[in-house]
Each structure stands twice: as structure tokens, then as C-alpha cells.
Amino acid sequence: MRLAELSERSGVSTATIKYYLREGLLPPGRQVNARTAEYDEEHLRRLRLVRAMIQVGRVPVAKVREVLGHVDDDSLGRTIRLGAAMWALPQVPEPDEEDEDVRDAHEEVAALLHRLGWENAERLAPLSPAYRSLVVAVAAIRRIVHDWGAEQIAPYAELMHRTAVLDLDNMETHPSGAERVEFAVLGAILNEPVLQALHRLAQEEETARRYGFE
Amino acid sequence: MRLAELSERSGVSTATIKYYLREGLLPPGRQVNARTAEYDEEHLRRLRLVRAMIQVGRVPVAKVREVLGHVDDDSLGRTIRLGAAMWALPQVPEPDEEDEDVRDAHEEVAALLHRLGWENAERLAPLSPAYRSLVVAVAAIRRIVHDWGAEQIAPYAELMHRTAVLDLDNMETHPSGAERVEFAVLGAILNEPVLQALHRLAQEEETARRYGFE
DNA sequence: TTTCCTTGGGAAGTGCCACTATCCAAACAT
DNA sequence: ATGTTTGGATAGTGGCACTTCCCAAGGAAA
Q: I need a surface site. Which of A67, B36, B48, B58 has the fewest CB within 10 A?
């Protein structure tokens, strides 16, 4: 498969594919001669994954490179590889520990994890980007709605835990092997837009049930 | 309150506040004289809301202006105003109806809504940005994981519906009045980062429970 | 063989976006 | 009188995801 065909089958312009090659998101094709390169089905798969991450998952190009680097790192065990890939994802500004709201949010979230019995998450907290994201988001809300706290979050946490159980069950039904980490990353990244869209649809449904269309 | 004080109390630079004023995200202050303007607590609230939307919610400036335009539109009923604000949010590329995967995804999602009994969502579907987002995301996943469909999504939809019920319950416990639409928008926008962070934390917790830290 | 078209690679340019820096003149503080 | 602060306007910055342009090598057609 030449560049042109790769482009046609994926719907991505040749210029963009060349850009991805330069950025290291796609491995180079097999060099046939000085001016020709061959690509295969694996390149097509990878390209579709990259596109999905960028367009649907809104992951910046630099992050995609980082995530794929972990996915391809054979020196790591599967779980760790997936964890590394997931931790490379978030794009959160560091919480400003000077800020009082941030410190409050910190305590509140830590207490919440404890109350929920999420011991592993508690242990990972100091390192976890997800934990930091949560602190930032909670601080931002409390800055505007002062009487907002763990009581409001806890039921959501319960639901999200069930969601995570579904995620992992899903993953386990899938064939293991080379594709599995890739599938897991895909699931992790593309599940989120699906969940978000479902959430908004559900809000529309529930709002209409309660208040009609007016 | 002068610009400088507004800046200090919000932690936003004067240059940025001036930018927001120019962009119409903040109403102009009360003009004291040719070279002085007064701002009040309402400006501070609004500024914090804008910041939260932009920084935590990642809403682009143009969208923030649009959303706030709906929030401030007194000619509309509350439910409609909220709906308009919510619908102004998403940033989804139009699904390409030429694409076969997109058409498949379309059918699949429509069938899913029907099966779930989300009649209102079904009726709103042709117009709803959330519906379009869902179609785009499902199409992107199916392009890579071919045996993926409604059976996988349905349980998530169920959980997201419960989340939406929580959202609206929460909103109803809140005082009505001028603040309520603002609170609803805030909830809608800032809940999503919270949910996302909780989801990722829950994944970490559940992964560690099943597989340990290796 | 000559002509023409296609190909892959690299450098530079584009458009958008969220700020940020610089000016300016009025107003206030000392 | 002097220096600082203020709000408003204009232009500039840096990052990002491409896109355009150019070139020389290959291959196909005449």
C-alpha cells in the first residue's frame, strides 16, 4: 500500500499522514527505494487509532505520541503499560497549592476516597493525574457554589465505579494479545466521549420528562 | 470595585479581564467618569463562572459568549433557556453522512434510544448536538473495533440516566431565582470534568483491585 | 530517449485561539 | 507640579494542527 492508498482508505489527506509520520505518530513505511515506501494493514489500524484519539478524544498530538510510546513499550507489563498510557493523557493545569479553595478541595476529596473505601485510589492519589483533575474541578465549583461538597459527589462516585467495572468487564471479554493494550487505550479514550454524549442525552430525556418541552 | 481589585480578588490578570470585556463575556462596569469604571460582586461571580467554563470546562471563548447570551435572555422560560445554553456547548464536527460507518452508527444509536424508552431524546434526536456527538463517537469506535455495538452501550446509558437524575435532583434542591439558571449551566458544565475525573479514578481503583500493582 | 505525471520528503506558511504587551490620554494622589 | 494609576484601543505572541510549496527521483506513455 502506498501513501496515496493509505490516505484513501483512511480518509486522511496525504499531507496530514506525512505530518503524522514526521511527528512519530506512525512508524515509517518499508522503504522500497529512495522514492517509494510501502505501508500495511497495521499502519492503517494505527492511523485510524490516531485519528480517533485526536478528533473524537481531543487528545493533542504530543500526548498521542507519548501514549503510543507507552503502548509500544514491550519492556513493561500489560497493566503497567496501560496505566502509563492512561496517566499520560490528562491535560490539567497543576493545582495551585497556595490557593485556599484548592487546599479545601484536596481535603474534601481525600476524605471522600477514604469514605468510599477506594483504598488503591487513595494510595495512588499523590501521583494520579485523575486525582489532581478532580481537585481542580472541585475547587473551581466551590469557588462559585460555596455549599457544595462531598455529599453531592459521593453518589456520582458510586455510579462511576460501576461504569469502571463495566469498562474492565468489557476489556476482559476481549481477546488478549498484541491488540489488547491498544484496545484498552482505545476504550479508555473513546469511552469518555460516548459517556459524555450519553450523559447529555440522558439529561435532555430527564429534563423533558420532568418539565416537558414548554 | 475597580478593575485592579476585580483582578486581585479573582486571580485573573487585568489584561485578561479587559479581553473578556471586549469579547462581551463580562458586562461593562458602571462608568463613573471618562476614565474610571466600577465593578460589583455580580461581576466577580460572572468572572469566576467564565474562568471555570474556560479553564475547567475547556469551553472556547466564543461558546462562552453564546451560552451566557442564552443565560441572560429573559425572554425565554427557564427550561428553554437552560436547553439553549446546553445546546450551544458541544463542539462536534458534523457527522459525514456519506460515510458508511456513520450511517450504521446512526441506526444503531436510534435503535438504542428506542429500546431504552428514551422517547423524548428520540424526538429531539435530529436536532440534538449530544445525539450527533454520540453518533460520531460510536462511528469512530466501530471503525476500529468492528464487533462493538448497542449491547456494549446500553448498560452505560442506564448508568448515565441515573447520573442525569442526580443532576436534576441536585438542581431542584437549589434556590430558584436569578441564580438558578446560572447554577444549572455551571452544574452542567463543571459536572462533566468531575465525572470524568471520578471515572478515571474509579478505573484506577478497579484495575488495582483486579490486577494489583504488578 | 524524451516528456510528463506521480511520489515521498522537508521547510515554510496558514488560520485559529487565548491571551499579552504597548500606547495613550485622563484622572487622582501627593 | 509631578508621578502613578486607570480604562480603552491596537497590535503582537506562542501554541497547535494542519497545508502548501518545492524539489528531485521513479515510472509510464509517446
A: B36
In Å, how far is A36's CA from the nearest CA of chain B? 27
Q: Does A208 touch chain B (CB under 8 A)?
A: yes
What does the domain layout of chain A look like in residue ranges? 3-56, 92-155
Give the closest-approach CA distance of B20 to chain A in angstroms: 18
What is the rounded CA–CA span in Å between residue B9 and residue A148? 21
Q: CA-to-C1' distance for B31 and C29, Å?
A: 21
- Residue A146 CB-density burial (10 A; 0-12 exposed, 13-18 middle, 19+ buried): exposed
Count of CA atoms in the C-beta half-sphere (13 A) of A10: 28
**Is the shortest CB-to-strand distance from B60 to strand C under 7 Å?**
yes
The C-alpha atoms of residue A135 and residue B124 are separated, in whole angstroms, by 35
Average pLDDT, chain B: 87
- Cβ contact B58 with chain C strand, < 7 A: no
CATH of domain B3-86: 1.10.1660.10
CA-CA distances (angstroms) from residue A90 to A59, A74, A132, B10?
Answer: 9, 23, 10, 25
B86 touching chain A per CB within 8 A: yes
Model confidence at B179, pLDDT cuts 50, 70, 90, reads low
pTM assigned to the model: 0.90
Q: For residues B122 and B113, is the Cβ–Cβ distance under 8 A?
A: yes
Q: Looking at residue A175, what is its pLDDT? A: 66
Put simply, whether B76 touches A (Cβ < 8 Å) is no
| CB distance A91 to A60 below 8 Å | yes
Residues of chain A with pLDDT under 70: 34, 91, 175-180, 214
Which of B76, B144, B1 has its CA nearest to residue A57? B144
List pLDDT tens digits, range B67-100.
888 888 878 777 777 778 778 777 677 777 778 8
CB within 8 Å of chain B, chain A residues 23-62: 45, 48-49, 51-52, 55-56
What CATH architecture does domain A3-56 belong to?
A: Orthogonal Bundle (1.10)
Chain D nucleotides close to protein (CB under 7 A) are: 5-10, 16-21, 24-27
- The pLDDT tens digits of the residues spanning B105-164 come to 999 999 999 999 999 999 989 888 899 999 999 998 888 888 888 888 999 999 999 999
Best mutation target among A54, A190, A206 (most B Cβ atoms within 10 Å) is A206
